[in-house]
Amino acid sequence: MSDSTSTEKTAKQLDPSDMTTDPSARVLDIKELGPEGEGLQTASDGKTILIPPPSSDPNDPLNWSPIKKHTILFVITVTAFLADFGSSIGVVTLLPQSVQWDRSQNSIQHNLVGNIFCLGAGGLFTVLLSAYFGRLPILFFFVSMAVGTSAWCAAATSFSSYSAARILNGFFSTVTQAGGLMFIQDLFFFHEHPRKINIWSGGIIVSPYVGPLITAFIINKEAWPNAFWVNTGFSALCWFLVIGLMDETIYNRGLARDQQPIPKSRILRLIGVEQWRSRHLRQTFPQALMRPITAISKLPVLLCTVYYFLNFAWVIGVNTTISIWLTSIYKFTPYNLGFFYFAPTIGALIGAVLGHWLHDSIGAYYARRYSGHIEPEARLIIIWLASPLMAVSTLVLGFALQRVYHWIILAVFFAMQISGIMIATVALNAYLLDAYPEGSGEVDAWICVGRTMGGFLATYVEINWVARDGPLRALGAQTGITAAAGFLMLVLGVWGKRIRTAQGRMNFAMERSVYDLNFPSGGMHGYNGIYWDLLPDDATGTKMVKITGDTGKQASTEVNLSILLGLKSVAHKSKTRAECGFVVAHEVNYYVKPDTTGTGKRPESPGGSKQVPSASDSHFSFLTCMPAQAEFITAWQTVHAAVASNSQILTFWYPNADTVDDLNG
Fold it and tell me: Is-contact 48 42, C-beta < 8 A?
């Protein structure tokens, strides 16, 4: 177990994210919970609550050593650097390529458009494939393809061949740029997220400027393909890091420890064999395909994506065209251009250094004001620093280019623009991860889409726009767009919580449909906690144990408890729930049609599998609650008393004989 949990208290595993009516709100300081916080697991400082509470399983990624966790963070950061590093090489190589292939620079730049578009498209495929096949095999396959397509770019002898290679390279190299949040969510606790996101985002934001920096020095003395051979070497380094250091981080916290897939061979996990054998524990492929759509249907995700699109467009626009501006207006040589790109690189590093403290400091300030609670919207406060930085920088760059100010003015405000986007990137990712931890990969992929679609647009229009209207008018309009985008963050800051509450969680397909769950071998497929309900006396079902009165036994403390309640049942009433000690994280309601066949089967059930029939129309509520704890027997008996007094039947579904001890009815 990691040193962050070495002094943990293990009496119970109540999740403090369940302590409020908003499941996205968190309490980090155990002192704020008072008696309710007794027994919660804390970090080594003795006061920071660990969210989510780690299991007792050493294979749980939350329990891995700090060295292993940070090694994986290092690998995904370096690999995330790969995508925009390779993409931005073409920003500078278009100068000699236009001569070699006798094409205009604007025409050559169209290959960059396809590359940028596929950075976004590849991100969506990354997360949906990872949900089905596992994180590690998709990472390995995509990085392998990135190595091959980068070598193809370097060896291309025609523009059409080069363009095809660039498009494919963009699709595959984006794997941890668009999927990095999945690994961060898997490996680190809630209080660690902002700083880990800041490290990973630093690799993403700095990469579009290191690429041109190195390439400019290369083409000053060497042929342009050598720049892509450098990228191929870097891609190969990432490939070796993945093979040597990475591991599968998916861990289903809905499964009891004895039902978790047992890791046997890292090589088999690398190529996806172990994940394939346990695929029945995850979603079907069609369900995985729907995950990105479910994510973008949430208004906060859509607004953040649009905000990022409207801001990153001009960051990419400046980067993709500045080599042309500096060589034509300022008469920079490739050698001069290489030194100039130190400016945005330094800007990204400044943004990362500031963010290392600012994001946590603002979160701590918010928690002090609101009784220890941190809402996801607290992460957006820093946007009001980032947006003005980007807007002012873009405007000054327009003036500087129009009036040919000294190039140092360009360098300073270019760096300032990048500092702003660096801070905004971390804030948006931290906000969406706090709001929708169940969709960590999906929200990351959509932010990547916003970034790449912004670059796609800017790359297409920037050169012609500046040539037609002049830098001042073009960048002045872009400043107005940047400022207007800030109102989207105002909407989320004021009404974000209401919007999230109204729309609910990202209840992906496997979690949404109770009646898609079969009962193979005495267990609910996809859920392995304890499921119970108060049903009418005429209810029937498969693998059910009916208990009346106080004959129930204590649940296993290793099993996360999920509860299925009839909306009309006594136990569903808030007063009874409070007496029983149920702390609800989130709730999803269902309407169930009666069983009209008399067979105990729903006619539309896939394969005729037995489901949960009822003799009359029923309304159910699926609750995700705190894990079972030592005191749960008292709550159990309280529910039994409510059942007995109302002549109802308490019905359990349980996955195997080990989950519930001696349930006999």
Answer: yes
